[in-house]
Amino acid sequence: MEYNTKSKTTYFYAIGLSYKKADADIRGHFSLDNDGKQLLYTQAKANGIDSLIVTSTCNRTELYGFAEHPYQLIKLLCENTKGTVEEFQEVAYIYKNKEAIAHMFKVGSGLDSQILGDFEIISQLKSSAKDSKKAGLLNSYLERLINAVIQASKRIKTETDISSGAASVSFASVHYILNNIEDISNRNILLFGTGKIGRNTCENLVKHTKNEHITLINRTKTKAQEIAGKFNLLVKDYANLQEEINASDVMIVATGAQNPTVDKFLIQTKKPLLILDLSIPRNVNHNVTELDNVTLIHLDDLSQITDETLEKRKAHIPIAEAILEEVKAEFNTWLETRKFAPTIKALKLKLTDFKNAELDTQRKKLSDFNEEQAELISNNIIQKITNHFAHHLREDGISTDESLELIKKVFQLEESTKHV
Hints:
Elements: E1 2-4, E2 9-18, H1 24-29, H2 34-46, E3 52-56, E4 60-67, H3 70-79, H4 85-91, E5 93-96, H5 98-108, H6 120-134, H7 140-159, H8 169-180, E6 189-192, H9 196-209, E7 214-217, H10 221-231, E8 234-235, H11 241-247, E9 250-253, E10 273-277, E11 294-298, H12 299-302, H13 308-314, H14 317-365, H15 371-394, H16 400-411
Parallel strand pairs: 6-7, 6-9, 7-8, 9-10, 10-11
Antiparallel strand pairs: 1-2, 2-4, 2-5, 3-4
Helix pairs in contact: 5-7, 5-14, 6-7, 7-14, 8-9, 14-15, 14-16
């Protein structure tokens, strides 16, 4: 899992923080929007990092990449967000090599999601990998790994029922609204912002409530109109935000702002108002709770719901974990092969040198030397020898590193570039 060049040895790391130890406020400090990601990519390249995947969702912010020391990745994250190294150390995790691989598999499979079996993260990982490739920051190792994680995720979806039933943050939002707001089909609902969870919540509300009083406001009106067309929503100008808030019974906030966009000073209505803040960082100022008529629910509160659907999902964890282990083992086998491939290649070149020297000697000795036959026989022998070495290195129960060192020593091999 080391990546060696002439100048440095780097290791594969996963560093980040998630809902498990970091609350919404802390996650907000480390949140990265698209501009932040682009700045991070540029800085990574300037710092000599050759491969990196960055994910930033409502539940986690993570960097997967190659570095000499994990602090290089931590520094990148902290310098491009509001978060500090001290905050990071309080709540973070750092995984190296095989542990980092295992972590990405667990995250991509939905087994590490805030709501078990919520597979939204795999599409975010795919998107992040595309961004990395576009930025020239996706080497063959990381590309192969992300494809293996995608494969595992697909198999878990099709071979288990871990994602059966509707259980996600958007489902939890609708579940909460339906259970806490009477006569929902006749209530005024306002969606502020076009974040994906907010859009999914709205789509589910349309489906389950038959409500025809859903209004959408977004800073960019054209984007709002595009989404409204899909879900049959009304669109109002951003300038009408305060008026629409005061006409609403339920408000869903899903903006991508780095600071709160809604506070108590926008609310003059005295009737009950339920606000769901589905944003990271939080986009609703906590001061709205000073108003007696306002109930504020954040996505971290929603994720605490446990219902029959989620309990049933837990029964499928062992099968999902078995699939993960199988695909992970295939990746690790590829990794081991990749680890010794340069040595086998160097061995083949050394044996070819022996062959060429011997053929030269025989040409001079024999007047009827059969060039074609000699080439064929010697090449077959070289292939058989290298195959035997490769088979030995693939076997379980042997120390690959020790075997590689012995082969290099015996044959006096030199490799120009090493992938260990």
